[in-house]
Specification:
single chain, about 110 residues, mainly alpha, Rossmann fold, two-stranded parallel sheet, globular
């Protein structure tokens, strides 16, 4: 599930995952956890955050795919919130064998 800021994608993903008994992965939350852990990934992410630029796809892909592999071993159904946002991210997901069965794009009215 993806959407622009203010679309409430995170809140909707969490509610839907709770209702369906799925695991929700909010990629934004996942990246913040890495920053808070001060991991190697987190240090890189913090630099991008300080410079107010998006983290590169390869870095985000590594973090997300690593997390998804753990869940695949446990056979969890997953809602990914905020991912994939780019073609490169979508291709990385597909390359790892994670093919979404649904993709929800939220839009906001101009008003």
């Amino acid at each position: 599930m993806v959407g622009p800021p203010g679309s409430k994608a995170r809140e909707l993903s969490l509610s839907l995952s709770d209702y369906c008994k799925f695991t929700c992965i909010s990629v934004g939350d996942l990246l913040i956890k890495e920053i808070n852990k001060k991991s190697e990934y987190g240090e890189q992410l913090q630099r991008y955050k300080n410079d107010v630029i998006y983290a590169p796809d390869d870095l985000v892909n590594e973090i997300v795919i690593k997390h998804l592999k753990k869940l695949r071993d446990q056979k969890h159904s997953v809602i990914l919130e905020g991912y994939p946002k780019t073609k490169v991210q979508g291709l990385a997901l597909q390359k790892m064998g994670f093919i979404p069965n649904s993709f929800i794009i939220l839009n906001l009215e101009d008003e």
